Amino acid sequence: MAQKINLGPATEHLRLVEQSPRVASQQPLLFFPLLSDHYELLKERLQRILDSNLVPRVYKRALIEPFYQVLEENDESWLEGELGKKGTQIQNIVGAIIQNFDPDFEGKAPRANTEAFREVVSDLYQSFIQESSEGALAPLPHWTEEDLTTCSFPNSDLGVDISLLNLPSRYATGTPIAWGYLCREVAGRDILKSYDGALKELKNRVHQAMNRNKLAALDPYWIQWFEEGVADILGVLNMGPAAAFSLIGFLRAQSDELRLSSICYVNDKHSIDLVRGYIVAETLKMIMTEQQRAKYVDQVMEELERDAKDVSHLKWDVVMLGDVKKLPELLRGFYTKSKQDPPSSMDHVCQARELIGNPRWKDEFVEFLASKKISQTKKAAANQKTTCSIGKENSFADFKKSVNVFVQTVVKSQLQALNGLSLLELRSWNEEDERISSVFRMLLQIPSGLDPAATYKSGFSASHIVSAAVMESITVQGEGVVQDKFPAIFARMVEMLQTMHKTNPDWQITKELAWSTASTEEDLLGDENSS
After folding, report:
1. What is the 3-state secondary structure (H, E, C) of 325-391?
2. How deeply is 85 buried, as exposed, middle or buried, from its count of CB atoms within 10 A (0-12, 13-18, 19+)?
3. How much is the pTM?
4. Rounded to whole angstroms, how far apart are CA atoms 409 and 407?
5. Contact call for residues 471 and 444 (beta carbons, < 8 A)
6. Taking a C-beta distance cutoff of 8 angstroms, is the pair 99, 107 a contact?
7. Residues whose CB falls within 8 Å of the CB of residue 262, separated by 6 or more in sequence, listed in order
8. Which of 357, 388, 481, 502 is the most exposed place for a label (fewest CB within 10 A)?
């Protein structure tokens, strides 16, 4: 009989994290907003980091040395100008370097948690990278006070040859499902960009598949949210059921109603929650055996159907227009600003729809609305109760059919850019992964302080540990799911990941290893087999 999953307590716990007041940043951005006034101090600090012998050679070459060289070749006035154009990106570069490599830095996130998440990101990245992409470096994660996870891609102008994964610091010590969700953030564009032409090739396959299945009306949706959808798929391929449950729990925690939404707004960074839920469910169906489907897929579908009850249509690219009574005045203001003559034969809602449907004016009109404090996100919508909106709408049934086409195409397409392989052939969670994860679920219950090297050594990945922590925190046991257990599960997860990180070759500073590794399955399961 399948173990019963209860996402409720973990979701509620994460919701409390989301609702907690944002405290003043403790990130290492001590030079901002007057960084240009402390130019030499910044260079001195970077030089100390380079001289400390605490930075892996690969990250010295790809990040710190070239960024330092850019600073050496310029001056305060150059930086002041760059801050006006790339302020957030420069802040994140400085923050990532100091947080990861300055031994004197003490921030909001414990160093152990930072090292643990570095291991998760590195592991996920490398699991999809073939030998043909040898030398590709995993993104460097760091904790920020940004509200959303973002990825800054390589910037040759600033000497940076790797991506930076910028993570909200509130998740540094959160629940396991937050980490189960954040794992997918390194997926998608950052992995596929390592294979020249893969994104374009796969996007064309999706476009062709939508048209072939008479779903052309939804093709623009999938092109717009293509990379986000691929990231959700890759998360499941890498971590199996835990990734699917984590995504559902994480998205629910963003909502006051604790349910997946059926709408997304024009400025939302992600697509419709329910669509994303069905993406992970369809992916899970593809990789699970019949026995595993009964164990996990059926429960994922139960979660989705609960939130999809009474939903017949999904809305996307929605634009809020504010109070309908003020719409005439709002439109007059925009037409005056943009030096247009308003159409005389259209009502005001139709005029707004015409502007949104015109690529020439859409972005400008949305910016104008924002200047009038009419923001275009789910969060803003929750606070704007008296608002009318316009947008695109399609039947839920058509969306479900398109999800199946999207997932099948993305997962199974054999791509020239991947040397004839599909994503499914690069990496797919399987029965052996499930078995290893179940071992780590037992190890998570061992009190902290036991030397992890005495119990497990090799034959596993960071994904197995995060998966084990997620599933242990949402599985109903004798007393149900108890929130009081979350801190202990999370702490053991971090301890195990940090131990793994000590032997990650990308992070070796010397040839000495923190603890020896072995290559046999017996080493991983040594204590289990001997008991």
Report:
1. HHHHHHHHHHHHHCCCCCCCCCCHHHHHHHHHCCCCCHHHHHHHHHHCCCCCCHHHHHCCCCCEEEE
2. exposed
3. 0.86
4. 5
5. no
6. yes
7. 272, 273, 274, 308, 311, 313, 314, 315, 396
8. 357
Nearest-angstrom CA–CA distance, 79 and 90: 9
Q: Is the pLDDT of residue 453 over 60?
A: no
CA 284 remoteness from chain centre = 18
The answer, yes or no, to whether residue 4 has pLDDT greater than 50, is: yes
Report d(CA 176, CA 174) in Å as an integer. 7
The encoded tokens of residue 75 equal 């001056």
Distances (CA, A) of 409 to 74, 279, 445: 48, 12, 40
Cis check for the bond before 33: say yes or no (omega within 30 of 0).
Answer: yes
Of 254, 381, 386, residue with least CA distance to 326: 386
Q: How many CB atoms lie within 10 A of CB 270?
A: 17
Instruction: Return the residue matching tokens 């971090």.
Output: 494
Torsion angle, CA of 448/449/455/460, rounded to 10 degrees?
60
Both tokens assigned to 107: 């921030």
CB atoms closer than 10 angstroms to residue 183 = 28
- Structure token digits, residue 421: 């392989």
Q: Where are the domains of the chain?
A: 27-186, 196-310+396-426, 324-386, 431-530
